[in-house]
Amino acid sequence: MPVWTCLQPEDRCWFIHLQVVLLLPDSGPHLCVSMFSVTAGKLYILNRTIELNISACPITHFGLKYERLYLNFTSENTVFCFNGFYDPQTKGDCLMAPKGENALMAISPWNPDMKELSLPKLPTINTTMECFFVFKTTAVGITVLNYGSQAALMVEVEFGAPSVFDVLVDGNKVDTVNVSVSNGYADLSGCRSSGVLYRPGDVVSSDPATCSTVICSQTAVLQNSTSGSTERCFTS
Fold first, then answer.
1. Alpha helices, H only, 147-204
2. d(C-alpha 105, C-alpha 22), whole Å
3. Under DSSP, is residue 111 helix (H, G, I), strand (E, B) or coil?
4. Dihedral (CA of 185, 60, 50, 33) sign
């Protein structure tokens, strides 16, 4: 059955004509965990812990590219993780949202309206949008945008209720988005080296002997650079 879904970020609306796919909970006393492939052009109704194949729109979360997404409904949050189901004792790469009862999910290719809406709020994004996916729960709306080597998060809340969204890298909180009336945004770009997180523009390592430097570029890619000849290096 087709459905028209309207998302209204900052009084703008884009429509996607989607086929509904309902994922029902399995019977039995235990919570079922399974993997499901998500394709563009369909609306998925999610109401249980589930592993999703998002290879149709992979996300590079602070330097690591992910093609899986793990959805948890906990007692306090709706949690989206990229490297396994959420566990406070493990080092998860996750997005933590306020608690919701169910989630609607859809993947969309590049969309000019979404680009026009998001880029002015994300000045540190220097790459091109390729696709994005949207989650709508009973409490919030979450959009994760794929910009190739970069990525971004856009969040909105229902009825203007103040809400907090946390961004985790290796289980550590690296950003918090507070939302009340307007949308909130977070840049999910970065580089990782030897387990350390670096932001775009950061120096990762430097070797004075060779004048070589490894940096996290403005597009969140590790790059080697040199300052010139070894003679000039030693002179400086």
1. none
2. 11
3. coil
4. negative
Measured distance CA(176)–CA(180) in Å, rounded: 13
Taking the C-alpha atoms of residue 174 and residue 130, their distance in angstroms, rounded to an integer, is 24
Q: Could you give the CA distance from residue 190 to residue 204 in angstroms, rounded to a whole number?
A: 11
Give me 220's structure tokens.
Answer: 């969140």
DSSP state of 80: E
Going by the DSSP 8-state scheme, the letter that residue 232 receives in this structure is: H
Cβ–Cβ under 8 Å, residues 149 and 129: no
Q: What Å distances lie between residue 113 and 14, 101, 109, 126, CA to CA?
A: 7, 29, 12, 18
Single-letter amino acid code for the residue at 105: M
Q: Which amino acid is at 220?
A: A
Q: Could you tell me how many residues make up the chain?
A: 236
Tokens at 115, concatenated? 């680009």
pTM: 0.80
pLDDT digits 0-9 by tens, 140-192: 889 999 999 999 999 988 666 788 999 999 999 999 999 877 788 999 999 99
State the Cα–Cα distance between residues 137 and 114, nearest whole angstrom.
Answer: 20
42: amino acid identity, one letter: K
Pair type for strands 50-53 and 64-66: unpaired
- Name the 3-class secondary structure at 231: helix
User: Which tens digit of pLDDT belongs to each residue from 27-57?
Assistant: 333 333 444 555 666 777 777 788 888 998 9
